[in-house]
Write a structure and sequence with these properties.
This protein starts with a helix and ends in a 13-residue tail after the last helix. The longest helix is centred in the N-terminal third of the chain and has 48 residues. The chain is mainly alpha-helical. It contains two helices and no strands.
Length: 80
């Protein structure tokens, strides 16, 4: 009798998890995705609405590459 009860509990838990995954998890995922979208939208609008402040794009990699080129060495070809 104990074995039958354990199997029944396992089957009930299996179907409960299956139903939860099928119906509840997509709703929760949609909720979190929409909430995240709203937060990013608010942050984006806050950045745009700042009057008189312009952003300048700076490429730090380009400046570093110019600094690390080393020194120029002039050379002459030697004819044999």
């Amino acid at each position: 009798m104990q074995l039958l009860r354990t199997i029944l509990i396992i089957v009930i838990i299996y179907y409960a998890v299956k139903l939860l995954a099928r119906y509840v998890l997509p709703v929760l995922a949609r909720y979190f995705i929409r909430r995240t979208q709203r937060e990013y939208q608010k942050q984006y609008e806050k950045e745009i609405r700042k009057p008189g402040k312009m952003k300048e794009k700076v490429n730090p990699d380009k400046k570093k590459a110019d600094d690390n080129l080393g020194e120029y060495v002039d050379y002459e070809e030697i004819k044999e």
